[in-house]
Structure formats: C-alpha cells, structure tokens
Write a structure and sequence with these properties.
Shape: elongated
Structural class: mainly alpha
Number of domains: 2
Radius of gyration: 17 Å
Oligomer: single chain
Order of helices and strands: HEHHEEHHHH
Mean pLDDT: 88
Strand content: 5-15%
CATH topology of the largest domain: Non-ribosomal Peptide Synthetase Peptidyl Carrier Protein, Chain A
Low-confidence stretches: none
Distance between the termini: 37 Å
Length: 149
C-alpha cells in the first residue's frame, strides 16, 4: 500500500467519524505521514474530487485549513447530477470515478456499476474511432444512468 492510499484511508476514517466533514491542516498531515505537503494536495485532488462526491474548501496561511465534505443527496438526485456532469464527452477515468461515486452512495448496485463500466470501456468501444470514443462513451453512460431512475 502506497503513501497516497494510507493518507486517503486516514482522511476517509475522519470523514466517517465526523458524519462526512473533515477539517485538516496540510502541514500537520504532512508531518504525520512524513511526506511533503504537495503529496497531501495530490491525494486530495485525486481522491476527494467533485466527481467522487466531495466538496473541498481550503484556506492558506497560518490558520489555514482544508475542509473536505462528502456530498449527501438522495440517489435519484445524485444520478441526475451525474448525468448532467457527464456532458457531451467523458474519458474512461472520469466515467469510472463517476460510476464509483454513485455506487458508493448506494444509487446503483455493484452489478449495474460493472455493466456500465464494461459498456463504456475501451474494449467495447474498439470499433469507434479513438477521437470519437469519449463522445460515444458519454452518450452510453448517460442513457444507462437515466435507465436506473
């Protein structure tokens, strides 16, 4: 397990203990995990992004903090928000993050998530020219999400 996984796990535990909101200090976390503050930034940017269902606020300076809040919404709203987030094109990594978010929130079950990721994966889209795959992927993902409502 890498340092990023350890840091993300620690933040997730904090979020669970505090009902979905954690206030952190970058320097304190860096010291705790014996890493540079930019490592903390990386973990927050990649593991706690809006696509994954989090709102991150930060304030720099002496009393600075990072506040991470897990967005709570009912499953139907979350699915519709995800449909709107997809837009006209979506890459595979973003599609996977969006599906993981709605799975984690309980808006879809594991089998539906697996089917969605299979349908929008590169092997399934192989007949499509590479420059058009993200557009087709977005269309398929949105239609599958709408059918879950």
């Amino acid at each position: 397990m890498g340092i990023s996984d350890v840091i993300a796990g620690f933040i997730n535990e904090m979020l669970q203990e505090t009902d979905g909101t954690a206030e952190l200090q970058r320097a304190e976390l860096a010291s705790r995990f014996n890493c540079v503050p930019s490592q903390i930034n990386y973990v927050i940017a990649t593991r706690f992004s809006p696509e994954r269902g989090y709102i991150v606020e930060s304030r720099r300076g002496g009393g600075g903090y990072i506040r991470i809040r897990r967005v709570q919404s009912d499953p139907r709203q979350l699915v519709m928000h995800t449909v709107n987030t997809v837009g006209d094109a979506v890459d595979l990594a973003t599609a996977a993050a969006l599906v993981a978010n709605i799975l984690d929130a309980g808006a879809i079950d594991a089998m539906s998530a697996k089917l969605m990721l299979t349908a929008v994966g590169n092997p399934a889209l192989r007949p499509i020219l590479p420059q058009h795959r993200d557009t087709v992927r977005a269309s398929i993902l949105k239609q599958m999400l709408i059918q879950t409502l």
